[in-house]
């Protein structure tokens, strides 16, 4: 994730220097806190939030139990992790589901924050949890807002309620809630109008909709890339309407991440979801502790597992395990694994969830190249079914044909076949590994690396 990449790199460098000192003095902690302060301010975190955060960390970090402990630097990092987590809300904040359906959710915000798209993404997220959402087009002012929501609903297979652009938004919202009650929709998500700036006319209309439908959740959709402006907008909406939470969009485009670190502290409103891309499934629940771990380079294994579970077909995974045991792993299986990995999101994001690979510098050393995956996929797809199942039949003329068909060179095809052959040899040993059938011990790969030479 691009968000926090600059902050993550600076904090990890600071703590790396701290680890090298062994015993710490108050002066060492003071110097580290100054660097943390600068890093947070550069990440566009609110000044008062930074001041309070550094004061809390410093107070805890210069205590005797830290300075006299065996691993003082780790103790300081633990304190920073805990305080960062608290800063972003402490624990995950979930949507309040009504005891009697439908649960009514009202999305508010300025124009351009991604409100209408977020309505679709949130509907998609709740549908995956077994809900039956109804999307409501109550923005009658922005040209094509209703059409945009209809298109999103069609793409996602979700119903959209609209009454055109000549009805009063209050009437539309009320009619939508009644429609949901009679049509079995247990969640109503209302897309409201925005403005370019916060003004009384906008707030008055939103307050009237709120009074008419009594929503269980009012969520502000705010653009992370606007930095401190996002926090100011959140404060204004919260004072005018009383927000229950925030959806922070375009978090993948903001390398500073200051808004995410400031919103909860300044407004008291928890971040409930973050938008992490343009795809309609790119909306994730916000976990303060996981985000804190990623910022400090501790990885985010839970999110990685959840992503894998969400994109992997359990039946296919079992079939693959069976094929590995029977030593039948082919280039077709290799291609299927590549495609599943692509479905999990950008490779840089996935690697960033692995402990120790959080900073941009470390990822750069790994030479993350999405184009390489695309080339590999093109080469395998240029092969015949027989060649994918039996790569040993691929001779010189076949290599030339595959290279021409995939827009690559013969050397690229040779490299792919060499890597695949090495992977297949390793696969033969997997049967001897714990949990894979045969023996209690499996072969250790060189230098303590993972099964494919990767650090995991």
Summarize the SSE layout with pairings.
Elements: H1 5-19, H2 26-42, H3 47-61, H4 64-67, H5 72-87, E1 103-108, H6 115-128, E2 133-137, H7 145-156, E3 160-161, H8 169-183, E4 187-191, H9 200-213, E5 217-223, H10 228-241, E6 245-249, H11 258-267, E7 271-275, E8 283-285, H12 288-295, H13 301-311, H14 314-325, H15 331-343, H16 347-352, H17 360-365, H18 370-381, H19 385-389, H20 396-406, H21 410-430
Parallel strand pairs: 1-4, 1-5, 2-3, 2-4, 5-6, 6-7
Antiparallel strand pairs: 7-8
Helix pairs in contact: 1-2, 2-3, 3-5, 5-12, 6-7, 8-9, 10-11, 15-18, 18-20, 20-21
Write up what this structure looks like:
The chain is of the alpha/beta class. It folds into 3 domains: 5-87, SRP54, nucleotide-binding domain (Four Helix Bundle (Hemerythrin (Met), subunit A), Up-down Bundle); 103-295, Rossmann fold, CATH 3.40.50.300; 303-448, 434 Repressor (Amino-terminal Domain) (Orthogonal Bundle). Helices cover 55% and strands 8% of the residues. The protein has 21 helices and 8 strands. It has helices spanning 5-19, 26-42, 47-61, 64-67, 72-87, 115-128, 145-156, 169-183, 200-213, 228-241, 258-267, 288-295, 301-311, 314-325, 331-343, 347-352, 360-365, 370-381, 385-389, 396-406, 410-430, and strands spanning 103-108, 133-137, 160-161, 187-191, 217-223, 245-249, 271-275, 283-285. Strands 3-2-4-1-5-6-7-8 form an 8-stranded mixed beta sheet, with helices on both faces. The longest helix is centred in the C-terminal third of the chain and has 21 residues, at 410-430.
